[in-house]
């Protein structure tokens, strides 16, 4: 047993003892997170496994205030122990079950934007520090360039930058400072539940060095997809209003395009993942395939309606979790634009431009996704009964709107 696992087991055992006597105080997330990083969930020592399962069982019975530390800990343990309970899922592995519930406790688009930016800053910092330890110059340059490119999309105080701007070049030290400022909320420190979501949300299945990178990029894209789905939902509401406001509708579409654009930039780091490591990660995470993504399912189904109901994703994500809208946004937008053509062609043109921006960013994201999948996964069967990159290629040209 490693030192990290031994310390984690002791810390959880102590917390369990206190919980039997009264309020146990904060859960020891950090030592557990260090042990998981060292071993991977699939190779945790048995003693630590049992302690974590006991803690999960204990928190299920405890009263807790939504959004508070105890609430976050209970959901965190629910995700962390899912594979130990033979209940693996994509939402648990990526911790998007926890992220989504936290975001929906407040202004969901704002919360998803903030959390995704914080996770991106954490990823950049992790990868720059990792690159600094890399002995191979070419690999060090590759990782450093990818990380600083993503850092350029972040603002030290406001999270994501405007994707329409041209961000300046950043040196490594500048990127680290920018991410450090964002992660510390300008030196004020993050609220406890939010700090937990950022610092302890990598329930890696293996000890492969690239798995934290892979998992974090998936989390960021999931949050950005949820953010885009929120904007699409608001756009749909506005499009069905008795008197739609074209400017407000276009603003929601531009926000959607911006979220998808940020997700595209995350691929800069995904390209650095070693294919052999990814194969090992994939083998250790059976049952957690990306077809279970509720964020992307909501986004597509709100935009395209029944046209988005492909058999494989529908089998993974039912309509209860990600329903379609009637009419879908694409149809509602077409009607609004047609009406505008009769009395305000300039507004109709602006709405078409905003719609085209969403479709362009979506196609760009899908093209890059396909290219990265070919590089990292190769021509192997996909998850959920798909045929891998061929499945992605067949649906490459489908627009969102």
Based on the model shown, name its key terms.
1% strand, globular, two-stranded antiparallel ribbon, 2 strands, Methane Monooxygenase Hydroxylase, Chain G, domain 1, 401 residues, mainly alpha, single chain, 2 domains
Description:
The protein is an all-alpha fold. It folds into two domains: 3-87; 108-394, Methane Monooxygenase Hydroxylase, Chain G, domain 1 (Up-down Bundle). Helices cover 65% and strands 1% of the residues. It has 18 helices and two strands. Strands 1-2 form a two-stranded antiparallel ribbon. Helix 7 (108-132) packs across helix 10, helix 11 runs antiparallel to helix 12 (246-270) and helix 11 packs across helix 16 (329-341). The chain is globular, with a radius of gyration of 22 Å.
Distance between the termini: 53 Å
CATH topology of the largest domain: Methane Monooxygenase Hydroxylase, Chain G, domain 1
Label the overall shape.
globular
**Count of discrete alpha- or pi-helical segments spanning 4 or more residues:** 18
The residue fraction in helices comes out at 55-70%
Characterize the main sheet: 2 strands, antiparallel
What is the H/E string?
Answer: HHHHHHHHEEHHHHHHHHHH
Given this structure, which CATH class of the largest domain is correct? Answer: Mainly Alpha
Side-by-side strand order of the widest sheet: 1-2
Mean pLDDT: 94
Number of domains: 2
Q: Total number of β-strand segments? A: 2
Beta-strand portion reads under 5%
Radius of gyration using CA atoms only = 22 Å
The CATH architecture category of the largest domain equals: Up-down Bundle
Pairing-aware structural class of the strands and helices? mainly alpha
Low-confidence stretches at least 5 residues in length (pLDDT < 50)? Answer: none
């Amino acid at each position: 047993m490693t030192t990290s696992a031994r310390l984690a087991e002791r810390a959880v055992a102590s917390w369990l003892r206190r919980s039997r006597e009264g309020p146990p105080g904060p859960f020891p997330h950090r030592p557990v997170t260090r042990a998981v990083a060292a071993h991977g969930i699939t190779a945790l020592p048995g003693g630590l496994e049992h302690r974590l399962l006991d803690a999960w069982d204990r928190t299920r019975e405890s009263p807790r205030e939504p959004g508070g530390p105890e609430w976050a800990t209970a959901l965190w343990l629910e995700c962390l122990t899912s594979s130990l309970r033979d209940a693996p899922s994509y939402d648990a592995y990526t911790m998007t079950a926890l992220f989504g519930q936290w975001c929906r406790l407040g202004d969901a688009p704002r919360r998803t934007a903030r959390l995704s930016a914080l996770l991106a800053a954490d990823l950049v910092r992790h990868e720059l520090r990792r690159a600094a330890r890399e002995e191979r110059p070419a690999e060090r340059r590759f990782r450093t360039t990818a990380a600083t490119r993503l850092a350029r999309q972040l603002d030290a105080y406001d999270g994501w930058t405007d994707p329409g701007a041209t961000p300046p070049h950043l040196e490594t030290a500048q990127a680290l400072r920018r991410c450090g400022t964002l992660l510390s909320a300008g030196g004020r420190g993050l609220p406890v539940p939010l700090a937990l979501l950022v610092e302890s949300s990598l329930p890696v299945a293996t000890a492969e060095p690239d798995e934290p990178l892979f998992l974090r990029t998936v989390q960021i894209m999931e949050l950005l997809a949820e953010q885009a789905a929120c904007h699409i939902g608001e756009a749909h509401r506005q499009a069905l209003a008795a008197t739609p406001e074209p400017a407000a509708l276009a603003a929601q579409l531009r926000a959607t395009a911006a979220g998808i654009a940020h997700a595209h930039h995350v691929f800069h780091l995904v390209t650095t993942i070693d294919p052999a490591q990814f194969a090992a990660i994939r083998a250790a995470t059976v049952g957690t395939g990306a077809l279970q993504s509720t964020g992307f399912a909501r986004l597509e189904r709100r935009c395209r309606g029944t046209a988005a109901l492909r058999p494989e994703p529908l089998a993974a994500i039912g309509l209860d979790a990600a329903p379609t809208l009637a009419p879908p946004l694409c149809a509602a937008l077409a009607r609004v634009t047609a009406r505008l053509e009769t009395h305000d062609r300039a507004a109709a043109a602006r709405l078409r431009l905003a719609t085209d921006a969403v479709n362009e960013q979506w196609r760009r994201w899908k093209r890059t996704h396909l290219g990265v999948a070919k590089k990292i996964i190769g021509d192997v069967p996909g998850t959920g009964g798909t045929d891998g990159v061929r499945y992605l290629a067949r649906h490459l040209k489908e627009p969102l709107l």
